[in-house]
Amino acid sequence: MIEARNLHKRFGKKVTAVEDVSFTAEDGVITGLLGPNGAGKTTTMRMLYTLVRPDRGTALVDGVDVVQRPEEARRALGVLPDARGLYPRLTAREHARYYGELHGLSGAALDQRVDELLDLLDMRDIADRRTEGFSQGQRVKVAMARALVHGPRNVLLDEPTNGLDVMSTRAVRTLLRRLKDEGRCVVFSSHVMQEVAALCDRIVVVAHGRVVADGTPDALRASTGKDSLEEAFVATIGTDQGLMQ
Ligand SMILES: Nc1ncnc2c1ncn2[C@@H]1O[C@H](COP(=O)(O)OP(=O)(O)OP(=O)(O)O)[C@@H](O)[C@H]1O
C-alpha cells in the first residue's frame, strides 16, 4: 500500500510542481494518476520512489516512510521511471538479470523469473539483443522487466504505455491486471484518459500540482453529473487539454 501525505515540491522560486498531494493506493487495486502535461504526476511519482525529496509532506510504502527510511521503502517498490535509462551494451535479458541480482536473486530462481517475464511481456525476440537502438516500445518492455524482476509488492509506473503499439499496450494492460490480481499495489500515471479508464479501479485526477478529484470511475461520473468519464474529466479539470489522445 502507498500513502502520499501532503506532498509539496517547488523548483526554484517560480514553479510549484506539487502542492499538497495526498492519496492512498490500496493493495489489489490499480490506481491511476491522471492529469494533463505539467500537472505534477512525474514529480509526485519521483517523490514516492525516493528520487526527489519532498519540501514538505511524505509518503509511506507499506508503512515505511520514504523520507526517513528511503532504502527500506525502495526494496518494496518496483519502478518504471519516466526516463527509462537503459544500458546500451547490455541485452534485454541481462538487464532483468542484473536487477534481479541487485535484489538478491540468483541461480535457477532468477533464470525462471526472467524467462517468465520475457514471456509475459512478449519479448522473446529481443531478449538477447543489446538494447542500443531499441525502439521506444522495446525500451519500455526492458524497463518493465527490470522493474518487476524481484516481485515487488508495490509497483509504480510513469506513463507505461507511452510509445507502445496496440499489441504491446494490451500486453502491458494484461500484466498490470495480473499484478493487481496477485494483490499488489499498482500506481500508474498517464495523461491519456482512455488509458486510465480502461485499467483503473481508482482514479486520482491531478491538475496544477493538486488533487482535484479522487474516486472510482463511477463516483467521478456521479459527482460531476456526467454520463461519460470523458465529460466528467473535462468538468473536473475545466479543460480537455492534454486529456485526449
Ligand atoms: N527538475 C525540474 N526543474 C524545474 N522544473 C521542474 C522539474 N521537474 C518538473 N518541473 C516542473 O514541474 C511541473 C510539473 O512537472 P511534472 O513533470 O511533474 O508534470 P507531469 O504531470 O508529469 O507532466 P507530463 O505529462 O508532461 O510528463 C512542470 O511545470 C515542470 O516544468
TrEMBL record:
Keyword field: ATP-binding, Nodulation, Nucleotide-binding, Transport
InterPro entries, sorted: AAA+_ATPase (IPR003593), ABC_transporter-like_ATP-bd (IPR003439), ABC_transporter-like_CS (IPR017871), ABC_transporter_ATP-binding (IPR050763), P-loop_NTPase (IPR027417)
Source organism, top-level taxon: Bacteria
Record protein name field: ABC transporter ATP-binding protein
Gene3D superfamilies given in the database record: P-loop containing nucleotide triphosphate hydrolases
Family membership noted in the UniProt record: Belongs to the ABC transporter superfamily.
Keyword ATP-binding: yes
GO molecular function per UniProt: ATP binding; ATP hydrolysis activity
Residue ranges constituting the ABC transporter domain according to the UniProt record: 2-233
SMART domains for the chain: AAA
